[in-house]
Design brief:
It contains eight helices and seven strands, in the order E-H-H-E-H-E-H-E-H-E-E-E-H-H-H. By secondary structure, the protein is an alpha/beta fold.
C-alpha cells in the first residue's frame, strides 16, 4: 500500500456537486480483472469529445491543471456505486488529495487504501482555495499535510481537518488493515491464550491436545 504524508502542488478546481463514481470512471472501462490502467479514462465523458479528441474546455485538459496533484470538488464527491476503480483512476492520473465538503462514504474510505487523502472542508473554504488558485492562473501551490491534518492555500491561509485515526495511520505508514493489525500481534496472542483458558471448546484441537 502506498504511503502519504504531505503533498504540495497544483490544484484543479472542479466544483460540481454530486460527482459520482460513474462520472469519475465510467462503467464501460471496468472490464477485466487488472486493477490498473484506469487513469487514462478518468472523467472520460468530460475529458473527451464524441470523436475521441480532447475536450479543451475541460479543466484537466488545460495547463497547468493537467499536472494537478490536488482536486477541489463540491459536495457529495464520489457518491454512487462502490467501485474502487474510482480512487484508483484519480491516483493513476496523479492526484494525491481531494478536497471537498463531503464525500460518498465508501469512496472516502477507499481513498485511504489507494494512496490518496480525502479532505473535508466547508464549501466556503474550498471556494476560497479555488479563487486563489484561479487568480494565480493555476500556479499557486496548495499543500495538504496528513501528519498535521491541515490544508494551506496559495496565499498561506491554513485550515485544519480531521481523518479517522485508523485510516490515517494506515496511509501515513503505507500499511493495509492486515499489516496494521499485525502490529498488535503480541496483544492478540495474549488475548488468545487467556481466552483459550476460559473457552477451550472454541478452539480447534491440535494433535498434541489429543
Amino acid at each position: 500500500m502506498e504511503a502519504f504524508r504531505q503533498v504540495s502542488g497544483i490544484a484543479a478546481p472542479l466544483l460540481h456537486i454530486n460527482i459520482d463514481t460513474d462520472q469519475i470512471i465510467p462503467a464501460l472501462f471496468l472490464g477485466g480483472t487488472d486493477a490498473k490502467g484506469y487513469g487514462a479514462n478518468l472523467f472520460h465523458h468530460w475529458r473527451f469529445l464524441p470523436d475521441g479528441s480532447p475536450n479543451t474546455d475541460f479543466v484537466l485538459n488545460q495547463a497547468p491543471y493537467n499536472h494537478a496533484q490536488v482536486l477541489l470538488a463540491d459536495r457529495n464527491f464520489g457518491c454512487g456505486s462502490s467501485r474502487e476503480r474510482a480512487p484508483k483512476a484519480l491516483r493513476e492520473f496523479g492526484f494525491r488529495a481531494v478536497i471537498a465538503p463531503s464525500f460518498g462514504g465508501i469512496f472516502y474510505n477507499n481513498c485511504f487504501r489507494n494512496g490518496m487523502v480525502p479532505v473535508e472542508l466547508p464549501i466556503e473554504h474550498v471556494r476560497t482555495i479555488a479563487e486563489e488558485v484561479e487568480s494565480s492562473q493555476g500556479m499557486g501551490r496548495v499543500t495538504v499535510d496528513l501528519e498535521r491534518q491541515c490544508v494551506e492555500s496559495p496565499t498561506g491561509r491554513v485550515w485544519s481537518f480531521t481523518a479517522p485515526q485508523a485510516l490515517r495511520a494506515m496511509l501515513l505508514e503505507g500499511m493495509d488493515e492486515i499489516a496494521l493489525t499485525l502490529q498488535r500481534l503480541p496483544e492478540i496472542e495474549e488475548f488468545r491464550a487467556a481466552d483459550r483458558e476460559l473457552r477451550p471448546w472454541a478452539y480447534a484441537m491440535s494433535a498434541s491436545d489429543c
